[in-house]
Amino acid sequence: MWSMLEEARKNGWLVRIKRENLGSDSFYGFVGGLSSDYVVISVIDSNCRFDGASVFETDEVTFLEWDTAYLKNRARVLEESPTSPLPLADLELSSWESIIRSVAAIYPVLTFHRDRTDSSSCYLGANIEIEEEIVRADLVSYDGELDGRFALRLSDLTQVEFGDGYAGALWQMVRNGES
Asked: Cα separations (Å) of 170 from 69, 108, 139, 140?
């Protein structure tokens, strides 16, 4: 699958990706970064706008689709969109630790998924620290407040999201509440 993801990245194709072994929905977007272990997708939301990025393991990709009429049409709509993809060139994609460190230096809130151990929950974190294969963060609640802390093992991660509008809005609520 890696060679096809690389071809999609090089050609700038809008793709649909599935990770069926994790029971996840399809991702629509552009391959913004790729290493032997990780892929970064500039995510396109259901309204055909760029909405952050998502990182997951390359080996988890079970289905890749490109060059369909549907995807070509969505790409044309994106050309008229006021949104643009996040800059992803500087992400370090050698490990979950390097990914989180490089992303957290730019984006104040990251969303962590652990689909192999708990597919029903994700965790929005701010003020992120990593030590000895553990990531710790302030828990950003769904009502825009810091609500304690959490810790999880890097080896349990299946996906990290960042730069999306929802997390950005929650962070703005956190910041407004600090005033």
From this structure: 36, 10, 11, 7
